[in-house]
């Protein structure tokens, strides 16, 4: 809402600032707003462009000035969709890849250290801490949540376990 408020202040003379946003890894939190345009002609096409891009944690606002020609609902919707798709194109937008992560503690026999570390490295997990006690090793890592089960399957054959 802060972004929208700053746009309304900056473009105070614009007729409409229609928007849509999608938030969350599951993409279930979203909002569509036509800002006074005929129902379904602004926010929904913007939302469609966001869905097509597959992005989340994104807001797209389209600022529109009235140019004196009425477009009709079909052409208006196409114009909003085209503006949103253009704004979301990789050559115009700055994408930040940010994935949900989990902290995991792994315990495994020290003799498998090299193999387990290769599995961790292969999944681009970050080692946060390592501890050694006798013949066991305990490693605390940060890994992308979507790769958790894959890591577990790869570590278990080395007599590993998640703590």
Brief summary of the model shown:
This protein is of the alpha+beta class and 163 residues long.
Write up this protein.
The protein is of the alpha+beta class and 163 residues long. The chain has helices at 2-10, 43-53, 72-88, 113-122, 148-155, and strands spanning 16-23, 29-33, 58-64, 101-109, 126-133, 136-144, 161-162. A hairpin with a 2-residue loop joins strand 5 and strand 6. The relative contact order is 0.13.
Name some characteristics of this structure.
163 residues, alpha+beta, 4-stranded antiparallel beta sheet, 3-stranded antiparallel beta sheet, 7 strands, rod-shaped
Q: Low-confidence runs (pLDDT<50, min 5 residues)? A: none
> Any idea what the shape is?
rod-shaped
Integer average pLDDT: 88
Q: What is the count of helical runs? A: 5
Total beta-strand segments: 7
Instruction: Please state the CA-atom Rg, rounded to the nearest Å.
Output: 24 Å
Strand order of the largest sheet: 5-6-4-7
Q: How far apart, in Å, are the first and last alpha carbons?
A: 41 Å
Provide the β-strand percentage band.
25-35%
Specify the biggest β-sheet.
4 strands, antiparallel
The helix/strand class is: alpha+beta
**Helix share, percent:** 25-40%
The ordered string of helix (H) and strand (E) elements is: HEEHEHEHEEHE
